[in-house]
Specification:
This protein has 157 residues and is an alpha+beta fold. The protein contains two helices and eleven strands. The strands form three sheets. Strands 2, 3, 5, 6 and 7 form a five-stranded antiparallel beta sheet that branches. A four-stranded antiparallel beta sheet has the order 8-9-10-11, with no helix packed on it. The chain has a two-stranded antiparallel sheet with strand order 1-4.
Length: 157
């Protein structure tokens, strides 16, 4: 049986190896730091709310298939103590992706990566109106990174 301190040391080592912990924003791209600071100000402006950046708000997926981590900021994981829905609405939440110097923002209800033989495909569930329906209809867009830009299939163009 391992002691509690051994588990704590192991957990501390693991957490220190993970990218962009919620409290450590210094290593984030400036666009992400700016967005989080703007969210902090928006939250504070709503009845002196306090912003929390939940674990997983920032991730490092390989979006372009070059085997190097890119960036994603999920505003679904930003929370304001005084406004439950400050960062999300019926259309979903904003996710900002950064590949190289290109920053792209998508309003979505969730996203994932599918690994295809030609590289990763970003799948995002978007508002049903993008597929000619309503919010109740399922609608997914697929994006692939190629030659320095996103190619998009599905939803409204």
């Amino acid at each position: 049986m391992h002691s509690f301190s051994a588990h704590a040391a192991c957990l501390a080592a693991l957490l220190s190896a993970l990218p962009a912990a919620a409290q450590d924003l210094a290593d984030l791209p400036p666009e992400f730091r700016d967005r989080i600071e703007a969210a902090r100000a928006d939250c504070a402006g709503f009845d002196n709310g306090v912003l929390s950046v939940d674990w997983g708000a920032v991730s490092r997926p390989d979006l372009d298939g070059d085997f190097n981590p890119d960036w994603a900021l999920d505003e679904f994981r930003l929370a304001c103590s005084t406004a439950v829905s400050l960062f999300c609405g019926t259309g979903g939440c904003t996710t900002t992706f950064k590949v190289g110097d290109t920053v792209t923002t998508i309003l979505n209800k969730g996203w994932d990566l599918a690994l295809m033989n030609t590289g990763p495909v970003l799948l995002a569930q978007v508002h049903g109106s993008e597929c000619g329906g309503t919010n109740l209809n399922r609608c997914v867009v697929a994006l692939t990174w190629d030659e320095g830009r996103w190619n998009r299939v599905g939803g409204a163009e």
